[in-house]
C-alpha cells in the first residue's frame, strides 16, 4: 500500500488526506494543532459521503489514516508528500528543510496558492524535488491540481507527480511558466478585486454579485471555460468576430483593472489562433450542443439540491403546476419527464441498460406524483405512494445521447390505488412501456390507506379525462403471453 504524508491538516490538508485515503492510499498527517484530528475526521466524513457518488466503479478499500507526533515520523517511508501549511514563505521553507533532512529524494508538492516554485525552492537541500501542486477546495471533489515546476525542478519527478495525481482522480494541469498565483488564482484574484470595487462603490451587494455569477456566466464557465464560451458567443464567425465586436471594450471603462494589453491584430491572431487549435475540430453547432448538454446536467443537479439556478427551476415548475391544475384536465397522456441517455446508462451491448428504463419510468411517475401534490412535503407528513408491481416491455433501443420523453396515462385510480401506463419515447417511437400499480400508504403504519383529499382532488379529474383514451396495447400483458 502506498503512503502519502500530509504536512498541515487544515482545510486543504484535510481535503488531500481524504482524497488519498478514499483512493486507497495510507495517509500520515502531521499538524501541531490539537484540533487537527477532529477537523480531518469531519472533512473525511463529508468526503466519504460525496466522492463515491462520482464513481460508477466500486471504490478501492480505504487506506489507513494515522496522526504522527512529528513531521519526521509522518514523512518516513512515504511515496509522496503534500505540504499544506499556512501561506507563509518562511514557514514553508522551514517545513521543506525538515522534510529533506530525512527524505531528500521524495516528491514534495506544495498547496501554495501563490508562491512560485523557485521561491519555495530557495535554500532547499534538494530543490529538484519541490514543486507546486495547487488544488481547489474541496480537494476531494474538484479534480484540478496546478502542477508548477521551476527551471530547477526534475522533469522526471514532475511526470511522476502528475501520474500520482491522476491515480487519485485529479487533473494535473502542467503550468509551463512559473508566475505568482499560477493560472487559476490570477483569475480568482482579478474577479475578487473587481467584486471588492463593486461592493465598495455601492454598485452591487455581495449577494447581487453572487447572483450575477451563479445565474449566468458561472454556469457557462463551469462547463466550457472562458475561450470556448466566447468562441460560441461569436456566432458562426467564431472568435475573430467575437474579438472584433468586443475588442474595443478593452479601452472602455469596463473594469477597474485598467492595465490591459494593447488591442491589435497580433493579439487577435494570437487568441483566435489558439482558440482554433483548442476547439476548431468542433463546429460552433457542435459546441452549442455540447454546452447545452452540459448545462442540462448541471441544472438538473442544482434542481435536485434546490440550490442557486436549480431553485429558480423548481419555482418555475411550481408556478406551472398551479396553472396546470387551474385548467381543465386534458384527455391526453401527460408528458412528465425529459431526459438524455448518458454514458453511464449504456451497457456492454452498446445500448441503454435495462435498469435505466425503470429509472426513466420512475422519473416520470415521480413527476406525476409531484403534480398531484404527493410531493416531498406530503411524504414528510408520513404518506406516500409505493410501487406494488411493474411490468416493462422493451420495444426499441435507446442509445447514447438519445433524448427520451416519459409520458403517463392513468389507467385507473381510486382512493388507494393508482394504475398507470408509462411510455418511454424517442420522438414518436415508444422504446419501452412500463405499467405500474402504485398503492397509497401510511408510512408509519406500513399499510395502505386513502390518499388525502388534496391529492385525490387533483388525481381524479385526470383519471376521468384519461378514461376516454384507448387502452394501450401493452396494458395487462404478462411475461410469455403471445398476442393473438
Ligand atoms: N483555503 C483555500 O481555499 C486554499 C488554500 N490553499 C493553500 O493551502 C495551504 C493551506 O491553506 P489552508 O488549509 O486553507 O489553511 P489552514 O489555516 O486551514 O491550515 C493550515 C494548517 O497548517 C498547520 N500548520 C502550521 N504550521 C505547521 C507546521 N510547522 N507543521 C505542520 N502543520 C502546520 C496549521 O495548524 C493549520 O492546521 C496554503 O498554502 C494555502 O494558500 C490552496 C488552495 C485553496
Ligand atoms: C483564495 N485562494 C487563493 C486561497 C483560493 C485558492 O487557492 C483556490 C481555491 O480553492 O479557490
Automatic annotation (TrEMBL):
The record's GO CC annotations read: cytoplasm
Please give the biological process terms from Gene Ontology that the record holds. Answer: carnitine metabolic process; fatty acid metabolic process
Q: Where does the sequence pass through the membrane?
A: none
Main localization (coarse): cytoplasm
User: Which Enzyme Commission number(s) are on file for it?
Assistant: 1.1.1.108
InterPro entries hit by this protein: 3-OHacyl-CoA_DH_NAD-bd, 3HC_DH_C, 6-PGluconate_DH-like_C_sf, 6PGD_dom2, HotDog_dom_sf, L-carnitine_dehydrogenase, NAD(P)-bd_dom_sf
PANTHER family given in the database record:
3-HYDROXYACYL-COA DEHYDROGENASE FAMILY PROTEIN (PTHR48075), 3-HYDROXYBUTYRYL-COA DEHYDROGENASE (PTHR48075:SF5)
What does the UniProt record say this protein does? Answer: Catalyzes the NAD(+)-dependent oxidation of L-carnitine to 3-dehydrocarnitine.
What name does this protein carry?
A: L-carnitine dehydrogenase
Q: Which organism is it from?
A: Cereibacter changlensis JA139
Phylogenetic placement of the source organism: Bacteria, Pseudomonadati, Pseudomonadota, Alphaproteobacteria, Rhodobacterales
Amino acid at each position: 500500500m502506498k503512503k502519502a504524508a500530509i504536512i498541515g491538516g487544515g482545510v486543504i490538508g484535510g481535503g488531500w488526506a481524504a482524497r488519498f485515503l478514499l483512493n486507497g492510499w495510507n495517509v500520515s498527517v502531521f499538524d501541531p494543532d490539537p484540533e487537527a484530528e477532529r477537523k480531518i475526521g469531519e472533512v473525511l466524513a463529508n468526503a466519504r459521503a460525496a466522492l463515491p457518488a462520482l464513481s460508477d466503479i466500486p471504490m478501492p478499500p480505504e487506506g489507513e489514516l494515522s496522526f504522527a507526533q512529528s513531521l519526521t515520523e509522518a514523512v518516513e517511508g512515504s511515496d509522496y508528500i503534500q505540504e499544506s501549511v499556512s501561506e507563509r514563505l518562511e514557514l514553508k521553507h522551514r517545513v521543506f528543510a525538515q522534510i529533506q533532512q530525512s527524505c531528500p529524494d521524495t516528491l514534495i508538492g506544495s498547496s501554495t496558492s501563490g508562491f512560485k516554485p523557485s521561491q519555495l525552492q530557495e535554500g532547499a537541500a534538494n530543490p529538484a524535488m519541490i514543486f507546486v501542486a495547487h488544488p481547489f477546495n474541496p480537494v476531494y471533489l474538484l479534480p484540478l491540481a496546478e502542477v508548477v515546476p521551476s527551471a530547477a525542478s526534475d522533469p522526471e519527478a514532475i511526470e511522476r507527480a502528475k501520474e500520482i495525481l491522476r491515480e487519485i482522480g485529479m487533473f494535473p494541469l502542467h503550468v509551463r511558466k512559473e508566475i505568482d498565483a499560477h493560472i487559476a488564482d490570477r483569475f480568482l484574484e482579478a474577479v475578487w478585486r473587481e467584486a471588492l470595487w463593486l461592493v465598495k462603490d455601492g454598485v452591487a451587494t455581495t449577494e447581487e454579485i453572487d447572483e450575477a455569477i451563479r445565474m449566468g456566466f458561472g454556469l457557462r464557465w463551469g462547463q466550457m471555460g472562458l475561450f470556448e464560451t466566447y468562441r460560441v458567443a461569436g456566432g458562426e464567425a467564431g472568435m475573430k468576430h467575437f474579438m472584433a465586436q468586443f475588442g474595443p471594450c478593452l479601452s472602455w471603462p469596463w473594469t477597474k483593472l485598467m492595465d490591459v494589453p494593447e488591442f491589435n491584430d497580433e493579439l487577435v491572431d494570437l487568441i483566435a489562433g489558439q482558440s482554433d487549435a483548442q476547439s476548431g475540430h468542433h463546429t460552433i453547432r457542435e459546441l452549442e450542443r455540447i454546452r447545452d448538454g452540459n448545462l442540462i446536467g448541471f441544472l438538473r443537479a442544482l434542481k435536485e439540491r434546490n440550490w442557486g439556478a436549480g431553485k429558480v427551476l423548481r419555482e418555475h415548475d411550481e408556478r406551472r403546476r398551479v396553472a396546470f391544475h387551474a385548467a381543465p384536465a386534458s384527455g391526453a397522456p401527460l408528458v412528465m419527464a425529459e431526459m438524455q441517455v448518458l454514458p453511464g446508462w449504456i451497457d456492454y451491448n452498446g445500448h441503454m441498460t435495462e435498469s435505466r428504463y425503470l429509472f426513466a419510468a420512475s422519473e416520470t411517475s415521480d413527476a406525476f406524483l409531484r403534480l398531484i401534490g404527493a410531493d416531498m412535503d406530503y411524504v414528510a407528513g408520513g404518506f406516500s405512494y409505493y410501487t406494488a408491481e411493474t411490468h416493462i416491455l422493451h420495444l426499441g433501443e435507446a442509445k447514447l445521447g438519445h433524448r427520451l420523453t416519459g409520458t403517463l396515462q392513468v389507467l385507473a385510480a381510486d382512493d388507494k390505488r393508482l394504475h398507470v401506463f408509462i411510455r418511454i419515447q424517442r420522438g414518436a417511437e415508444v422504446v419501452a412501456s412500463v405499467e405500474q400499480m402504485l398503492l397509497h400508504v401510511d408510512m408509519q403504519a406500513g399499510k395502505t390507506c386513502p390518499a388525502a383529499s388534496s391529492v385525490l382532488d387533483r388525481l381524479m379529474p385526470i383519471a376521468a379525462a384519461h378514461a376516454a383514451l384507448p387502452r394501450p396495447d401493452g396494458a395487462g400483458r404478462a411475461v410469455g403471453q403471445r398476442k393473438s
